[in-house]
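Tokens in:
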């Protein structure tokens, strides 16, 4: 972890020059939206005058005024959201690559890239069918001796009905929205061990009978606390027994304490795949529009990144893990 002084110095060195351009762009967007609001008010005033000339009924005049106000308000709000999102994306593109390099020069960052879908599918974290897989904020490289790749991913089952009424009424089902990590792991071989959270509200024991788990067997540990929290499926009970030492299970439980019942782990073919629902490489919901960005924003994003890397230490993957 970097110190506050190091992070502050990084912020000054990395953004003192580029921040001025973003401030100017923010002011330009703000002026444009201000002018749009003025134009919207003029259009609304014109609509009121037209309504008074066209309609004789006060009820229709009031109705027309309210409808025109709603339409103009919706258009202005939509323009505001688009401008805000565009500015936020510009800031993200400026900040995130520099922040990743600040954390470790061996890391590579690609904003629009995502960990391959087959890695998520092969890990067998979710037995439910999905038809949408997307993501962003891809990281790869070597961190504290561990070769890995990671990204934020979103997995959904979208309604594909051709009926517009059904498509409108049926909501898309979000199955996973969080971080997916794949890293080297010495204890892994060609067998597969899958560790799933048991205490989720939507967990159904019947999921374990899904086709994707057909070649796996339920493995029971002798650790009562771990059994209450997780389900273990394994293609080879001997690998599961070797992997699930009390020390390793305590590490997994520490992740559960930190991230709740959102931790999924699969071990196979020389790698460990970890998924944490609700955790993101970078929190892109921060509203930096008009505020630009300041040291506390950068510090928050640094914290996002380091929460991801704490998983490496908690699972004992790095050379410095206790």
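Residues out:
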């Amino acid at each position: 972890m970097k110190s506050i002084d190091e992070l502050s110095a990084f912020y000054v060195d990395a953004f003192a020059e580029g921040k001025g351009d973003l401030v100017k762009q923010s002011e330009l967007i703000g002026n444009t939206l201000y002018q749009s609001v003025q134009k919207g008010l003029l259009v609304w005033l014109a609509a009121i005058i037209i309504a008074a000339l066209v309609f004789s009924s006060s009820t229709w005049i009031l109705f027309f005024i309210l409808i025109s106000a709603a339409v103009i308000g919706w258009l202005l709000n939509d323009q505001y959201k688009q401008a805000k999102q565009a500015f936020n994306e510009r800031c993200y593109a400026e900040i995130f690559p520099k922040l990743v390099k600040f954390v470790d020069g061996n890391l590579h960052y690609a904003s629009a890239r995502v960990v391959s879908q087959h890695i998520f599918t092969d890990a067998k974290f979710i037995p439910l069918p999905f038809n949408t897989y997307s993501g962003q904020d891809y990281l790869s490289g070597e961190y504290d001796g561990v070769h890995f790749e990671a990204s934020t991913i979103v997995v959904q089952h979208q309604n594909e009905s051709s009926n517009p009424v059904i498509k409108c009424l049926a909501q898309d089902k979000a199955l996973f929205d969080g971080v997916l990590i794949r890293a080297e792991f010495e204890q892994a071989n060609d067998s597969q061990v899958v560790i799933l959270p048991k205490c989720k509200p939507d967990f159904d024991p019947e999921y374990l009978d899904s086709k994707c788990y057909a070649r796996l067997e339920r493995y029971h540990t002798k650790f009562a606390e771990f059994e209450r929290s997780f389900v273990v499926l394994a293609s080879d009970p001997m690998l599961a027994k070797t992997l699930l030492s009390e020390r390793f299970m305590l590490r997994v439980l520490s992740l559960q304490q930190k991230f709740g019942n959102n931790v999924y782990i699969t071990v196979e073919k020389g790698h460990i795949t970890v998924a944490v629902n609700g955790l993101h490489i970078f929190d892109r919901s921060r509203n930096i529009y008009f505020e630009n960005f300041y040291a506390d924003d950068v510090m928050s994003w640094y914290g996002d990144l380091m929460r991801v890397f704490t998983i490496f230490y908690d699972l004992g993957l790095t050379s410095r893990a206790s």
